[in-house]
């Protein structure tokens, strides 16, 4: 922790860049009508600018690149070195994700074109040689080596799934940004002993999200937009691929949006609808229907994510797998209970 002032300074710089950048993006969004109109599914009652998360992507890229260049004088070169290809995949991929998401924010792309964009983004780590090569063994000690073809498929699925999970949870002011901030800090804490540069990049993302949340927490003045959702989801997915935390820790840390996406998609498929069709079955919407306030629902979900993050830090990899399975059961039961409570209220 002797580098704590350095990490705090990096996070603060990223926060300032994102804070100022979000103000600029908001003016651009208003000028070019990048905004969400009120409807029966959205919580906003007036036209709300979106694409604010692009400032997060830009801050993460600029500050992250600066930190990487200055890693030696900042004292971040100890421990396990990060491959240059991995850093490039992380920073360039996050910026590309922001740009692709910005196109959706501007033109409201159809679902098929959104999926094409997500697939392009998901292929970036693979193009730079970043992939899942080992999996934690839930039945014993050690890791399991997996064939290259399976590793590539899992990497593509992991990054694609993370994008959709973060997109689905992005339904209340400050919700996705706050959950991502907690996840980024946790991944940074896990990376601290082994890879200081990776920890610094995690804290860079956390700082950028903190600066953005100044404008996005309830009541928000701008939404994250697809640009922010895709960039942040991509960054978290690749940070977990590069780090000692591995995918299993990120699976637990981000268990809430991942499992929420699973149940939402399953429910839509069982109802004979497209997994991308709109409805109000997300966990945050169920909490509000059950009687919680907007701010209360967000804080409850922050608390759940924080508890899961603590678990990811203290549990072994195999225990984290079992914890995730338990969360799947518990959250499924909570969704059923919330649905019945909401029905009684109506």
Task: Give a verbal description of the structure.
The chain has 346 residues and is mainly α. The protein is 71% helix and 3% strand. The chain contains 13 helices and 4 strands. The protein has helices spanning 4-31, 53-69, 84-107, 111-127, 148-169, 175-191, 196-216, 225-242, 246-253, 255-270, 283-289, 294-314, 317-345; strands at residues 35-36, 48-49, 134-136, 143-145. It has a two-stranded antiparallel sheet with strand order 1-2. Strands 3-4 form a two-stranded antiparallel sheet. The longest helix is centred in the last third of the chain and has 29 residues, at 317-345. The model has no long low-confidence stretch (mean pLDDT 91).
**Count of extended strands:** 4
Backbone CA Rg: 19 Å
Number of helices: 13
Instruction: Please summarize the sheet with the most strands.
Output: 2 strands, antiparallel
Question: What is the structural class?
Answer: mainly alpha
Helical residues, percent: over 70%
Task: Give the overall form.
Answer: globular
**Order of strands in the sheet with most strands:** 1-2
What is the CA–CA distance across the termini?
Answer: 52 Å
Mean pLDDT: 91
H/E series: HEEHHHEEHHHHHHHHH
The low-confidence parts are: none
Element layout with pairings:
Elements: H1 4-31, E1 35-36, E2 48-49, H2 53-69, H3 84-107, H4 111-127, E3 134-136, E4 143-145, H5 148-169, H6 175-191, H7 196-216, H8 225-242, H9 246-253, H10 255-270, H11 283-289, H12 294-314, H13 317-345
Antiparallel strand pairs: 1-2, 3-4
Keyword list:
4 strands, 3% strand, 71% helix, single chain, mainly alpha, 346 residues
